[in-house]
Amino acid sequence: MDQEIEKNQAKSEIHDEILLAALKLFAEKGYFNTSLTDIVEAADIKATNVLYQHFKNKQMIASVLYENIFDSLNVSVDDIRRRNQKSSDQLRGIVDLMFRLTDEASHVMQFLLILKVDEFLPEHKPTLGTAAFIKIIKIIQAGMKAGEIRTMDPTLCYSYFFGIINHTLQLVLSGSLDKNADAYLSATWLTAWNAIAKK
Asked: Tens digit of pLDDT for each residue in 96-123?
């Protein structure tokens, strides 16, 4: 029984190591410039056949990463919505999370903001079709209803607001801005919020 538990834990650790190595490589080199051999070496596993015991190909690795990242984001958005009543506070919580992730988990944010996921995972929902982003659109709609946010097409409002947020974070991730994301948080928030706030 104990051996079975240890064996399952070891399998799970290898699975996670492969995902972490792939995430880092996809973020740094791009999906198409990363080979399975690169992932095997970065994950420090013995051979490619070990990788095949967990994933049948590179696209499957990318697919699991996509699902894990968006599932985690969905849980975080739910938590932020539970803790804050006003749409402005909910949006601020999401922005704070994105800036924190940029500083603390940059590979995740590169996967979200830099990689063109639709090029290698064409069968997956586009970002705006994921549960987390549908909830963000609902936050925006609630903000319009409550008079916090100007009345407009919710998707356009999302574009105005997150266009500013995402572009700033892309500049940080690419090294075009030389400070940590946190240094730009206040100014970026104010600019993005003023783009949609009802005056």
From this structure: 999 999 999 999 999 999 999 889 999 9
Residues 165 and 182 in one domain: yes
* Cα four-point dihedral sign 20, 25, 55, 109: positive
- Bridge partner list, 118: none
Which carries the bigger pLDDT value, residue 160 or residue 125?
Answer: 160
Q: Provide the domain count of the chain.
A: 2
pLDDT in tens, 136-182: 999 999 999 999 999 999 999 999 999 999 999 999 999 999 999 99
Q: Which residues of 31-41 are buried (b: 16+ CB within 10 A; e: fewer)?
A: beebebebbbe
Residues 144 and 175 in one domain: yes
